[in-house]
Design goal:
- There is one protein chain.
- The protein is mostly helical.
- 78% of the residues lie in helices and 2% in strands.
- 19% of the residues are buried.
Amino acid sequence: MGRYRLLTMNVLMWLALFDILRYSFSSAIWGILIAVACMVLFVFLIKGWYKDATFSPVSYVIGAILFLFLSIQCILIVGSLKILDTTDYYEMEITRIVESTYDAADEVTMKQSDDIIKLVIDRYPLLHYYIGGGEFTGFTARQLPHAMADELRSFMRWYIFRRILWCLGFVIVGAVCVIKSLSKKYVPSRRSERTQRQRVQTDRRRVSRRPRR
């Protein structure tokens, strides 16, 4: 069951990505730009600690894979931020649909709320991945739009937070892999300086201990 749920989430993530590319191409541009900025910072930090290091071909392959993963997550984050920013607009659209169908004091059943969600998704297909599974019961027609909008806001914040955690995880794993791909003769600059000073001190001690003829 857990594997099926994980597979379903991965499929939905890719479908959401393709739909963001389809309906909001600017999100893809901004997502890629943010990923580029993250990679520049990533390389800067690695080079700052390993000043004398030269990236190996494996390092570049790892960097390319990391950039791909970060780009996907950043595109999803930017697209989600846009949806979160326009939640008030969706709430007004849901209000129009509800007011045209039900009286304000009517209690909306789960089936009726599902029908409303389908209408909203038909107009805005991208929302399918974020409110398609919502269950709304015990609300009047006046309360329902705000309840749906709050559910969308809550879900989007949690969704964005998960994407950020994925980004951090990719960066940590990528950093470990890149560091391991560096040649063994390259060591952190501080450690290198310390080792060099220790060698100089050892050589001086050896010279001072040599018997005089």
